[in-house]
Design a protein that fits this description.
Distance between the termini of chain A: 47 Å
Strand content of chain B: 5-15%
Structural class of chain B: alpha+beta
Order of helices and strands of chain A: HHHHHHHHHHHHHHHHHH
Strand content of chain A: under 5%
Radius of gyration of chain A: 20 Å
Strand order of the largest sheet of chain B: 3-4-5
Number of helices of chain B: 7
CATH topology of chain A: Na+/H+ antiporter like fold
Number of strands of chain A: 0
Largest interface: A-B, 44 and 22 residues
CATH class of chain B: Alpha Beta
Largest sheet of chain B: 3 strands, mixed
CATH superfamily of chain B: CBS-domain
Distance between the termini of chain B: 17 Å
CATH topology of chain B: CBS-domain
Oligomer: heterodimer
Radius of gyration of chain B: 17 Å
Number of strands of chain B: 5
Helix content of chain B: 25-40%
């Protein structure tokens, strides 16, 4: 199959599978991922090599776009609107999974620290698609639903920050394993990667804001936004800065200096959907089924302790913020799904750490499938227990 | 030519607390639903409601919450089948429907700029404020076209 035919086939099959899977109550992302596994090199082998080889490119672009959008969460308006309980619960459930998974992998599974931290940071992600789908389907309404939506909406932002910081540290640890002044070098390198990303993102935001004055049509706006988001990602890759943080800072600075910043993000939304589809299908296609057997304990521990970490964190957050009993007791059940951001982070890890990256990626894809299949059921359970839906 | 020379100052506005029923009743004799500016007590513009936002009355949450969340499926709710009670006319208020992030103009903006802004943001109407952010009028593509026709001596 040639590359163009392959692309067409993926888009077409993706659309069909999403329609099919929706009928049984799962979000499109689950369909894309399963389709990717099915048509990937491990099973049907219909994804052309060229497309498979461009997985890194697609994931960089997609993650750049979503990090840019997520960065806009940190506007004055959004920060004012976000409630105390949403803030506490979201920060602590993300940190809970991060810390617990890192600790368990390092102390019990005896994995290297940088690897444990990468697993831990990916564990902080929560995918809202399945949760939101259940909320929509049953028209859930109430205090519990409001808090849940708030938490899943901001969670990706915390995850991207946690992952970007962990990745910077992991890369530095990996590079300077035997070097003298180890800690100093790790700290310096990480700060450079994060600080540099901030400066780059801020500069791109100012440039975008200035160039906006010369833009007259929606098409020009789309081209300008896409061009600058790509340039921002490209320079970050070139200078070894954090791609995720550079894109996120671009969104954050832009939203605070340009009153029409939401239009930049909205314009990208028009072209983002087919890219997202490709991203998920390729994530599935990159799964090497033969490695699946070797992840055994890692996968099981990740599966369990990510959820336990989120539960402990969400519970603590709800207690600190004096949230209602139902929020404290059941909210974490609805935070089980994991998908886009976790897969994207795992793809980055796969590219940056050729040896261990494959294991991280395989574990994340396999656990994503499991979480996404059980996630909707748990969300439904939580909403019913909280009294926000009657089923 | 500035926007203040072309805009209409006769604007029906709403408050955050205006009920959906009251909002719809204000326009029962119009054959379109125009852009409705939302103002606070001191006339300060805080949002807008367009006919597109009216569909959000059928949603169980404010769509703004999920605006920045990636990878969500689009919601294809069938408004003909959704089971809603008459009560939503009083339960849903403008605050639940309005857009907090919107495009608006100050009355000293040049009409050419206003037209560009409408073209860029695909809007047919925009709310107009003074320098202090207080609502003073609204301007639509038709107002601008009329001004151009007048300028050319056609009308």
């Amino acid at each position: 199959m040639n590359t163009v035919l392959g692309l067409g086939f993926i888009l077409f099959a993706g659309l069909l599978s999403a329609k099919l899977v929706k009928k049984i109550g799962f979000p499109a992302v689950t369909a894309y991922l399963l389709l990717g596994i099915l048509i990937g090199p491990s099973l049907l082998r219909v994804v052309p090599k060229d497309i498979l080889a461009s997985s890194g490119l697609i994931s960089n672009i997609v993650l750049g776009i979503i990090a840019f959008g997520i960065g806009q969460n940190f506007s004055r308006y959004q920060m004012r609107r976000i409630g105390r309980s949403v803030l506490w619960i979201s920060v602590l459930e993300a940190c809970g999974a991060w810390i617990l998974v890192t600790a368990i992998f390092y102390l019990i599974l005896r994995q290297p620290f940088y690897l444990s931290m990468l697993f831990g940071s990916i564990a902080s992600a929560t995918a809202p698609a399945a949760t939101v789908m259940v909320i929509r389907e049953y028209r859930a309404k109430g205090n519990f639903t409001d808090t849940l939506l708030g938490v899943v909406a901001i969670d990706d932002a915390w995850c991207l920050i946690i992952f970007a910081v962990s990745l910077a540290i992991a890369q530095a640890i990996y590079a300077y394993q035997v070097a003298p002044f180890f800690l100093l070098k790790v700290l310096g390198e990480s700060l450079l990667s994060i600080g540099g990303a901030f400066v780059l993102g801020a500069l791109s935001a100012f440039l975008l804001s200035v160039l906006y004055r010369f833009i007259h049509t929606p098409t020009e706006l789309l081209i300008l936004t896409m061009g600058l988001v790509f340039i921002n990602i490209g320079i970050a890759i070139w200078l070894n800065l954090s791609v995720l943080l550079a894109s996120m800072f671009l969104g954050t600075v832009l939203v605070n200096i340009n009153r029409y910043s939401f239009k930049f993000f909205d314009s990208l939304k028009m072209i983002a959907s087919p890219l997202f589809l490709l991203f998920f299908v390729l994530a599935g296609a990159n799964l090497e089924i033969k490695i699946l057997g070797s992840i055994g304990m890692l996968g099981l521990f990740y599966l369990i302790f990510r959820v336990v970490g989120k539960m402990l964190g969400a519970n603590l957050g709800a207690r600190i913020a004096h949230a209602s009993t139902s929020v404290r007791k059941y909210l974490s059940y609805a935070l089980v799904p994991q998908a886009g951001v976790a897969l994207g982070c795992a793809l980055i890890a796969k590219t940056d750490f050729p040896e261990a990256g494959n294991m991280i990626f395989t574990t994340i894809v396999a656990t994503t499938v499991i979480y996404e299949l059980f996630g909707p059921l748990l969300t439904k359970y939580a909403l019913r227990k909280a009294g926000d839906i009657i089923v | 030519m500035q926007v203040r020379e072309v805009m209409s100052t006769d604007v029906i506005s709403a408050k955050r607390s205006t009920k959906l029923r009251e909002l719809l009743n204000s326009f029962k004799n119009f054959h379109i639903f125009p852009l409705v500016p939302v103002i606070e007590e001191n006339n300060r513009l805080v949002g807008v409601v367009s006919f597109r936002n009216l569909i959000d009355a059928f949603r169980s949450y404010h769509p703004d919450v999920l605006r920045l969340v990636p990878f969500l499926d689009e919601e294809d709710q069938d408004i003909f089948k959704i089971d809603v009670s008459e009560g939503i006319g009083d339960l849903v208020v403008v605050e639940d429907l309005m857009e907090h992030e919107y495009v608006s103009l100050t009355d000293d903006t040049l009409v050419e700029e206003a037209y560009d802004l409408m073209r860029l943001h695909l809007k047919e109407e925009l709310a107009v404020t003074d320098k202090a952010g207080k609502l003073v009028g609204r301007i639509g593509v038709f107002d601008i076209l009329k001004a151009v026709f007048r300028h050319k001596g056609i009308i």
